[in-house]
Amino acid sequence: MFPLRLLRTARRVLPAKSLSTTGQLTDLTVDNEGIATLTLQRAPVNSLNVELLQELTTVLGQVEKDKAKGLVLTSASPSVFSAGLDITEMYNPNVERLTALWTSLQDLWATLYSAPYPTAVAINGHAPAGGCMMALCCEYRTMVSGRYTIGLNETAVGIPVPEWLIGTMCKVISQREAEVALNAGLMFTVEEALKVGLIDETATDKADAIEKSKKFIKRFDKISPIAHSLTKQRFRSDVLQPFAKNREADLNQFKYVVLQPEVQELLGQIIQKLKQKKAAK
Ligand SMILES: CCCCC/C=C\C/C=C\CC/C=C/CC(=O)SCCNC(=O)CCNC(=O)[C@H](O)C(C)(C)COP(=O)(O)OP(=O)(O)OC[C@H]1O[C@@H](n2cnc3c(N)ncnc32)[C@H](O)[C@@H]1OP(=O)(O)O
Q1: Which residues are catalytic?
Q2: Is residue 218 in a domain?
Q3: Position 214 in a domain
Q4: SUPFAM superfamilies from the xrefs (predicted)?
Q5: How far is the CA of 53 from the centre of ligand 1 (A)?
Q6: N or C, where is the chain less crowded by C-beta within 10 Å?
């Protein structure tokens, strides 16, 4: 059984910044209404390495412990929300580090997806793969308009999408749209994402996206925290429960897939392409 995470007492409204912490890779601030904003700040593209994944999970635990009214997730980059898993962590990897990478990603997904407080994301740039995964975990998605893309492109980088992530996507867009997109690793433009329901609304800029996210969190001002958290977890339990049972198998499959020579070759080509792109800029 996936442990239920209920907020048993009312959320506190804390004075501005009382919970604020700045880790190396993230920044957490709390406004005077008690809404926490967690900003990814691992330059240049917030790629998720072991340290960033672990710091995010720790900070989410802090947000829960301190009973913030809700959480807005965003990024400090001007054009990238998150580039997903750090590809260099998967290329010619040290197996212990690869294990830590996947275990930390599992922890982050489980913590954010089952968060007992309301969550929203202000997607202020590209959100491929793990970036899209974090957005999908939130209850409300606002994305800044522009030439950005969002989606689960794992198959394009040689990685099969795990069941729990397919389940997360199918809770947001139709199974048909999800199957077509995930099988081929398709990315959505902002307009396409809005059309299929992958995002809930667009924003003119990051400030607008954060304001819209906070407006969503304020919808819960008069809702009992226990009613909210239990209902949310019931909606998500059919994805959370099997995940909890299959964590070890999921980890072993990930390591098996990533260590395949053809996947290593593909990852090497992607790293090379990213380098060439930079050189051409
Ligand atoms: C059943 C079996 C179970 C197996 C389970 C397996 C997988 C589970 C699947 C899903 C779970 C969630 C995890 C998914 C896996 C991933 O996340 S893989 C990562 C996929 N990400 C990408 O493909 C994105 C690649 N990057 C880009 O497309 C672009 O960088 C960008 C994000 C669109 C930004 O473009 P921009 O022009 O602004 O920047 P640059 O491209 O110039 O990049 C700047 C800088 O950053 C480096 N970089 C970019 N992306 C990554 C990355 N993902 N990891 C590491 N480094 C990255 C790039 O190399 C540049 O570096 P520099 O040259 O040193 O400056």
Answers
A1: 85, 130, 153-154
A2: no
A3: no
A4: ClpP/crotonase
A5: 14
A6: C
